[in-house]
Design goal:
The protein is an alpha/beta fold and 309 residues long. The chain has 3 domains: 6-84, Winged helix-like DNA-binding domain superfamily/Winged helix DNA-binding domain (Arc Repressor Mutant, subunit A, Orthogonal Bundle), CATH 1.10.10; 91-163 and 271-307, Periplasmic binding protein-like II (D-Maltodextrin-Binding Protein, domain 2, 3-Layer(aba) Sandwich); 166-269, D-Maltodextrin-Binding Protein, domain 2, CATH 3.40.190. It contains 10 helices and 16 strands. A 6-stranded mixed sheet has the order 4-3-5-15-6-16. Strands 7, 8, 11, 12, 13 and 14 form a 6-stranded mixed sheet that branches. A hairpin with a 4-residue loop joins strand 1 and strand 2.
Length: 309
C-alpha cells in the first residue's frame, strides 16, 4: 500500500469532528478544497469510503468510525511527542485555541491575552467566540472559558478574570418617564421587556435576588434577539427594559442613556472559569497559559485549581 500521509489523516479527523468541510476549514485555517483533496487521497490509498458526503451533512461510514476510534489517541500521542520539544525552548511555541462566550471575549480576555502574548511571543492565541453550550474538545479547542454552571464535567477549572459579576436591569429615562419605574421584579409583567434568546433557542429567564430571596420572571415585550448590541440600542431608544451583564450596559449607564432599575435586586454571581481536560501531557501553549493564570490568581489571592464534579 502507498505510504499514508499524516496530514491526510489529520484532515480526515478534522472533517469528521466538524461534520463538514466548511467547519473543518474554518477551524484549521485551510481551504475546504484542500481538505476534500486530502480525504480523496486517503480513501484512494485505503480503498474504502470513510465519510458519507451529501449537500447537507458529512458522517463517518462504519469503516470511518472504526478508523476514528483507533486514530484519535494515536494522533494525540504524536502531537504530544512533537509538543514535548517545547521543553527545550526558552519560550513555548504553538497555537492555543480557546472557546469562550461573547461576554468573556469582549470584557475579560482582551487584557489578559495581551499580557500573556507579550510574555510568550512564540504562541498564537486562537479565540473562538461561542455562546452555545459546546463540547470544546469536539470543537477542536484546547480549553474553554465558561461560568460555573456550564463547565463540562470531569474538567480542571480555575478562576480567570473578575471574581464576581452581576446582572443589571435598566431602561432609558424616556421610557421610565412614560411607563413608570418598577419597584419589585413582579412589576415587570406589566412592562415592555427586551428579551435575549440563546443560540440553543432557549429564551432567557430573568432572575433577581434580594436577602436570599430569588425571584424568576419570564418577561414579555416587543423585541426578542440573540444580539446584545441590538438589545442595548433598543433599550437606549426607549423601547423597554433590558436585563443583562453589567459590562454590556456600563457605557450607556455611565453616559446616562440608561438608568438602572431594581438595583437592590441585582443578582451577583461567580466570575468565569478557565477549564481544560486533565492531561498527563498538556500541550505547551496550554500549560504556559494555565501557569500564567495561576500566577496572576496567586498575586490576587484567588483559589487553587480544582476539579469540577
Amino acid at each position: 500500500m502507498e505510504e499514508l500521509g499524516l496530514s491526510d489523516i489529520e484532515a480526515f479527523l478534522a472533517v469528521a469532528r466538524a461534520r463538514g468541510f466548511r467547519g473543518a476549514a474554518l477551524q484549521g485555517n485551510v481551504s475546504a478544497s484542500a481538505l476534500s483533496a486530502a480525504l480523496r487521497r486517503l480513501e484512494s490509498r485505503l480503498g474504502v469510503r470513510l465519510l458519507n458526503r451529501t449537500t447537507r451533512s458529512v458522517t463517518p461510514t462504519e469503516a470511518g468510525q472504526r478508523l476514528i476510534e483507533r486514530l484519535t489517541p494515536l494522533v494525540g500521542e504524536i502531537g504530544g511527542a512533537l509538543d514535548s520539544i517545547n521543553a527545550y525552548r526558552d519560550s513555548p511555541t504553538g497555537t492555543l485555541r480557546l472557546n469562550v462566550p461573547s461576554i468573556v471575549a469582549r470584557y475579560v480576555l482582551p487584557q489578559i491575552a495581551a499580557r500573556f502574548l507579550r510574555a510568550h511571543p512564540g504562541i498564537m492565541l486562537d479565540v473562538v467566540t461561542d455562546d452555545a453550550f459546546v463540547d470544546m474538545l469536539a470543537a477542536g479547542c484546547d480549553a474553554g472559558i465558561r461560568y460555573e454552571e456550564r463547565v463540562e464535567r470531569d474538567m480542571i477549572a480555575m478562576p480567570i478574570g473578575p471574581r464576581m459579576q452581576r446582572f443589571v436591569a435598566a431602561a432609558s429615562p424616556a421610557y421610565l418617564a412614560e411607563r413608570g419605574r418598577p419597584s419589585k421584579p413582579q412589576d415587570l409583567v406589566s412592562h415592555a421587556c427586551i428579551r435575549h434568546r440563546f443560540p440553543s433557542g432557549v429564551i432567557a429567564v430573568w432572575e433577581f435576588e434580594r436577602r436570599g430571596k430569588v425571584v424568576r420572571i419570564r418577561p414579555e415585550g416587543p423585541l426578542l434577539s440573540s444580539t446584545t448590541e441590538m438589545q442595548v440600542q433598543a433599550a437606549v431608544s426607549g423601547l423597554g427594559i433590558i436585563h443583562t451583564f453589567e459590562e454590556f450596559l456600563q457605557p450607556s449607564l455611565a453616559s446616562g442613556a440608561l438608568v438602572p432599575v431594581l438595583d437592590e435586586w441585582c443578582q451577583r454571581f461567580s466570575g468565569p472559569l478557565l477549564y481544560y481536560p486533565s492531561r498527563t501531557h498538556m500541550p505547551a501553549p496550554l500549560r504556559a497559559f494555565v501557569d500564567f493564570i495561576k500566577n496572576e490568581g496567586a498575586q490576587r489571592g484567588d483559589g487553587e485549581v480544582r476539579r469540577t464534579k
